[in-house]
Structure formats: structure tokens, C-alpha cells
Amino acid sequence: MAKNQGELTSVLVGRNAMRKKKAKFKSYIFTHPVILGSLLPVVLLSLWEILSRMEVFPSYQLPAPTVILQTIIEMGQEGTLVTHIGITTYRVFAGFILGTVVAVVLGSLVGFYKNAEKLFDPMIQAFRSIPSLAWVPLFILWMGIGESSKITMIAVGVFFPVYLNIVSGILGVDRKLIEVGKMYGLNTIQLIIRIILPASLPSFLVGLRSGLGLGWMFVVAAELMGASQGLGYLLVLGQNTLSPETIIASIILFAIIGKISDWVLKKIEIRSLHWQDRLVK
Amino acid sequence: MSLKLKNVSRTFDGITAVKNFSISAEPGEIIGLLGTSGCGKSTLLRAISGLDNDYDGEISINGNTSKEVDDRTGFIFQEPRLLPWLPVLENVTFGLKGNKETKVQRAKEFLENVGLSGKEQLYPRQLSGGMAQRVAIARALVTSPEILLLDEPFSALDAFTKMQLQDLLLDVWHTYKSTVVLVTHDIDEALYLCDRIVVLRGQPGQIDTEFVIKEERPRQRGGQKLAEYKSEILDRLDLNNTHSYTS
Ligand SMILES: Nc1ncnc2c1ncn2[C@@H]1O[C@H](COP(=O)(O)OP(=O)(O)O)[C@@H](O)[C@H]1O
Ligand SMILES: [Mg+2]
After folding, report:
1. In degrees rounded to 5, what are phi and psi of residue B149?
2. How far is CA A1 from CA A7, A8, A43, in A?
3. Residue A21 pLDDT > 70, yes or no?
């Protein structure tokens, strides 16, 4: 008897759990971030497609999404798509690395040494007040419209956010933690490696992400100025050949690879900053 | 190691925090600094540690008067000051030298002593305030420092943990005979642990009285002898008369 009862309750519990799971699954479908997040874009895209087909938007100004998609697919089949994406990504990547390396070197010097701060910081701050795009003509004049002027351009854009965040990260390290290191007899180099660097890592990563964002912005500017390849070149091409689908296709590709590169950095950030006590939504 | 302070004063921007403080501690002695907040106890401890070297006067450790940090000195701060990017175990091994295995072995031993075994892989953000302070205590004790400076180390802990850790401190002291300077505002704690209690008063803080506690260890918490000392100290601090409630 007792055994039966036990079985009975266990069956009931099992059923209840199943029901709960189902209910949970249902509500999960509707609140799942991917589904919730793509709701609005899907609706808007459908509307856009319908209105374009009804020729509410003239096709020489705003072609239908399917037309744009077709443009992308055609470029893909021709093989030009890969070339354009490749060259643009290469420029951003090279500029990003160059800007970051210079920022790390100068930023660490300024962060660690008072005299370096006095030497470099006023000048860097002064240069910062120049809108970076204003350099474009000068760089082109100096280096021509080849790769080097473009990459320098992008590096300048990446440099500032990375530099500023490194400096503020290093200067912002909690003095109390440095004292802990001093109590254990760490010398300056050890203090830097074991305390100051890990403590300023969050700030550095913030700098990298905003630097990368600016890198994508600057590659557009650089490629608009004169390029024969790249997504920015597609923008100019679209404008000159009166084909808005090429322009919009390029914009969409920019959005996608920009997002992917940011996602990679974000993953790295989450990996290396898992110790942080952050507000979880 | 012996510790000697001669006429130590410390002034911050024209405001004197500590004035003409002199004591000397024999090797293995436990000295308590007792006083109300703001009378310069932390300031003194930082001067002894070498973290602050803008004081006047002389501090000598084993006859050495250099103002540098001596890495045989351990410091337990008022706050845990754990490194947030390291898990508990690595926080404890932070100051240890030698090969990894023995470091980990020793750290685990001390974590067990402070009641935190099994928490080795947690990060500081996952600890309660009391747990974090216990990790900090383990981190300081694990290096078996020859001079141990403690700045109100147990004030954030509950009464039971506090007593446990006071006993742990005594255990470590028995083994290594460290010279200890303990800052506290808890009279019972000072009476339970110290060979000598220095009462600081005023601003700038100056030595008011010294009590030598001759009671053998282990002492009995709340025992007759300690109660007599306590009453005496309270008298010195003018806290033992009922008038103070009305005035
Ligand atoms: N870094 C500092 N700068 C200026 N004043 C300080 C500093 N540290 C301590 N003081 C002052 O010195 C006095 C003693 O402080 P402290 O030693 O922290 O007291 P306690 O630890 O006994 O509570 C206080 O009046 C405090 O304001
Ligand atoms: Mg204090």
C-alpha cells in the first residue's frame, strides 16, 4: 500500500513537472531573445517588400529587399563580393592593429611614468581635438591614395579611444590593491604585471571595442576618398551608376561584418572579465 | 623580530594625526593599540609597514631603520582587499614563493583553518563580506610573517567567527612567534589576545596608558581577571561612570 502510494505520487509529480516544462517552453518561445529581437525587423522588411512591389517606393530610389539580396548573391557568384569584403576587412584589421600597438606603447608610458605624461599627454590631447577625418587630405597628399594612407587613417581613428582608455585604466587602479602587492615585496615590474595590468584590463577592452567601431567608420571615409575595391568603393560605385541596390547592399554588408567583429571582441571580453562583479539583467 | 618606534609623528597637510608615539615590542610580543576612531591607529600601522614613509621619528625593525617595506611583514587591512580577478586559492597563494604544489598545499591548509575549504575556486565577487575578510586573513597568515600588523581585522565578522579567528591567530603566533601589532577598538579582543595594551587618546593621538596583561594563555573569555582589566581600561577612558549617560 505504502509502496503504491509512493508510485502514485511519483507519477503525479512527473506529470506536473512535464506540464510545467511545456508551459515554460511555450513562454520561452515568445520571450527568446532571437525571436523577440527579430520580430520588428521581419515586420518592417515585409512591409518594405510589399510597398516596393506595389511601387509605392520607386525602384530607382528604394529597391525591394529581395532585389538587394539578389545583388549580393550575384556579387557572390561573380566572386567580387569576397574581394570587396576581404580588402575592407584587411584595411580595418591592419589599421586596428597599428593604432592599438601605438596606443598601448604610448598609453602605458603615459600611465606609468609621470614624466612621460607631462611630455606626451598635452600634445596628444591637442591632437585629439582635431576631428580625425580632417587628416584625410593630408595623408593622401603624403602617401597617395594607396593602402598606406588608408591604413594610417584608420589607425588614427582607432588610436584615440584605445589610448585614452589605457591611460585612464592604469591611472584608475585602486591604490589599495597596489599596496597589497607592495606588502608582498613586489618590485615595479611585478606590480605592473600582477596588479596594474589585470586591474586595467576592463578599461583596455572597452577602448578596443570603441576603437574597432571607429575603425569601421574610418574605413568608409578612407574608401570613399578613392579606392578601386572594398565595400566603401561599392558605395561610390552605386552612387555613380545610380544603383541604390549596390549602396544598400554595401551598407548591409558593413553592418554584418562590423557586428561580427564586435561580437568576437565581446566574446573575448566576457572570457577574460568573467571575474567582474557586474549587474546581470 | 623586535620593533621599536621612537617619537613617531605624522602630519597630513598641516594636520597632525599622530604625535610623538614611542613603543618597543620584544620579539614575539603581541601589542594591542586601542583607541577611538580617528586617533591615528591606522596611520601608525601604515608607518610601521613602510607603506607610508612620510612620518617623522624613527621606526626600527630588528635594528633596521630603513623606511622601506620589509617583506617579512604581513598586513591585514581593515578591508579584505582581495584581487577581484583571482579566485580565492590564488588570492591566498599571491604572496607565497616556491613551487606551485607546496604553495597550493599550504594555502588549502589555511583556507581550512579559516573555515573556507571547498571555496577555493570562487571569485571574490561570490563571497560575503565576512568570507572575503577570512580569505584576506588566510592570505596574510599563510606567509608566516615575522611581524604581523592587523588593522581591526575582525571587526566585520560575526561574534563566533571572530572568536574562531582570534584563536587561529594565536595558533599561528604559537607556531611562528611573530611579533604582532593589533589595532582594535574592541576591548575584549585586546584583552584576550595581547601581552600589552596601549591606549591612544585624543587628536592628534598620543599614548594615554599602557596595560600589561600578565594572564597566562589560553585565557578565559569573560573571566574574572580580564573583567578587572576591562573595568580599569574603561575607567581610564572615562567610560565607566553612569554620569556619562546623562551629561
Ligand atoms: N591620507 C590621509 N590624508 C589626510 N588625512 C589623513 C589621511 N589618513 C588619515 N588621515 C587623518 O588622520 C587621522 C587619523 O586617521 P586614522 O589613522 O585612519 O585613524 P584610526 O585608524 O585610528 O581610526 C584622521 O583625522 C584622518 O582624517
Ligand atoms: Mg583605522
Report:
1. -110, 125
2. 10, 10, 59
3. no
Residues of B in contact with A183 (CB under 8 A): 49, 51, 69, 71, 73-75, 95
Ligand nearest to the CA of B155: 2
CATH superfamily, domain at A65-272: MetI-like (1.10.3720.10)
User: Residue B57: in which H helix or E strand, if any?
Assistant: strand B56-61
- The set of residues, in sequence order, having a beta carbon less than 8 Å from that of B74 and lying 6+ positions away, is A183, B140, B141, B143, B145, B147, B148, B149, B178
Task: For residue range B15-44, list pLDDT tens digits in order.
Answer: 999 999 999 999 999 999 998 888 999 999
Q: What residue segments make up the domains of chain A, in order of their start?
A: 2-53, 65-272
- Record the pTM: 0.81
> Probe ligand 1: pick from B42, B54, B75, B199, max atoms within 8 Å of CB?
B42
Say if ligand 1 is within 6 A of residue B40 CB. yes
Alpha helices (H) along chain B: 41-49, 88-93, 100-113, 129-141, 159-176, 187-193, 224-236, 243-246
Cell readout for B102 is 607546496
- pLDDT, one tens digit per residue, over B191-226 is 999 999 999 988 888 898 999 999 899 899 988 999
Read off the pLDDT of residues A161-199 as tens digits, 9 standing for 90 and up: 999 999 999 999 999 999 999 999 999 899 999 999 999
Is B79's CB within 8 Å of A176's CB? yes
Ion ligand 2 residues within 5 Å by Cβ: B 42
Predicted ipTM of the assembly: 0.91
Class of domain B1-72+164-213+225-242: alpha beta
Which amino acid would we find at residue A175? R
Chain B hits for A184, Cβ within 8 Å: 71, 94-95, 143
What ranges do the domains of chain B cover?
A: 1-72+164-213+225-242, 83-144
